[in-house]
């Protein structure tokens, strides 16, 4: 049942030790920082985290890794100049890494959401990433069998949610959010705006059927989005979808 809660702490309160948590974001874009901070405060540990990378600097996912709350991470880009907390934990043997090519990562979650038992991908064939996996030749090309990635929970960030839990996102902050929402047993979303009216169905990115918990947390990026859309709309008598405010989108039925 869909619920709207008042705080990030309430939103993540069901997450328990050992859970598999899908966390949206491409770097900092679309990363649900406030939900991650609340997860940190909740004390949950032994987590398996699925994310595009392994945390950056001293914020968000990086802090979960720093505090050794993450037992395993499944990601496509574990190392960069400011991934020092992951580097330290990995070199100490205190975190397990499953490296997955980025396209396969997204498709494995999409497969989980679509109820697909597996799929063949050419990515990784002939490399260590294919070790222990079934390979098959199809029409003269070699493929590797990949399995779905399912989550107990998903933490994602969207721009706005309507009363039915339908979501729209802000630009590239969409990234992994839609596929993670479908692949989790319980999807938790932080949004900048909770709308009073329903979104136009043609504008919905993630249908509310995939959303379980919504918390409104205004952020700097959400304020910027509203300002940008208002400025663009002011110069266009008939603003297109990309220039409309969330309230305008909600009013169109």
Topology of this structure?
Blueprint: E1 3-5, H1 8-11, E2 20-23, H2 33-42, E3 47-50, H3 61-66, E4 70-75, H4 84-91, E5 96-99, H5 102-114, E6 119-121, E7 135-138, E8 141-146, E9 151-161, E10 167-168, H6 177-183, E11 184-194, E12 213-216, H7 220-234, H8 246-251
Parallel strand pairs: 1-12, 2-3, 2-9, 3-4, 4-5, 9-11, 11-12
Antiparallel strand pairs: 6-8, 7-8, 9-10
Helix pairs in contact: 5-6
Give your account of this protein's structure:
The protein is α/β, with parallel strands linked by helices and 253 residues long. 27% of the residues lie in helices and 25% in strands. The protein has eight helices and twelve strands. It has helices spanning 8-11, 33-42, 61-66, 84-91, 102-114, 177-183, 220-234, 246-251, and strands at 3-5, 20-23, 47-50, 70-75, 96-99, 119-121, 135-138, 141-146, 151-161, 167-168, 184-194, 213-216. Strands 1, 2, 3, 4, 5, 9, 10, 11 and 12 form a nine-stranded mixed beta sheet that branches. Strands 6-8-7 form a three-stranded antiparallel beta sheet. Helix 4 links the parallel strand 4 and strand 5 (96-99). Helix 5 crosses helix 6. The chain is globular, with a radius of gyration of 19 Å. Belongs to the 3-oxoacid CoA-transferase subunit A family. This is 3-oxoacid CoA-transferase subunit A. Pfam families: CoA_trans. Keywords: Transferase.
């Amino acid at each position: 049942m869909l619920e709207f809660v008042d705080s990030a702490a309430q939103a993540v309160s069901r997450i328990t030790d050992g859970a598999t948590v899908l966390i949206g974001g491409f770097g900092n874009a679309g990363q649900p920082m406030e939900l991650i901070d609340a997860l940190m405060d909740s004390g949950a540990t032994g987590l398996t985290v699925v994310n595009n990378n392994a945390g950056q600097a001293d914020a968000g996912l990086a802090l979960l890794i720093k505090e050794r709350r993450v037992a395993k991470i499944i990601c496509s880009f574990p190392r960069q100049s400011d991934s020092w907390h992951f580097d330290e934990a990995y070199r100490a043997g205190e975190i397990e890494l499953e490296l997955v090519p980025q396209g396969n990562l997204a498709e494995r979650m999409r497969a989980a959401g679509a109820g697909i038992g597996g799929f063949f991908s050419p990515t990784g064939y002939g490399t260590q990433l294919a070790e222990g996996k079934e390979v098959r030749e199809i029409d003269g090309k070699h493929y590797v069998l990949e399995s779905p990635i399912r989550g107990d929970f998903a933490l994602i960030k969207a721009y706005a949610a309507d009363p039915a839990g339908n979501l729209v996102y802000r630009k590239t902050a969409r990234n992994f959010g839609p596929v993670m929402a479908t692949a989790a047993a319980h999807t938790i979303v932080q949004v900048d705006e909770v709308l009073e009216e329903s979104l136009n169905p043609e504008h919905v990115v993630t249908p509310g059927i995939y959303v379980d918990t919504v918390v409104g947390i205004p952020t700097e990026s959400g304020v910027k989005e509203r300002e940008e859309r208002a400025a663009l709309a002011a110069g266009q008598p008939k603003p297109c979808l990309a220039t409309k405010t969330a309230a305008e989108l909600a009013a169109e039925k």
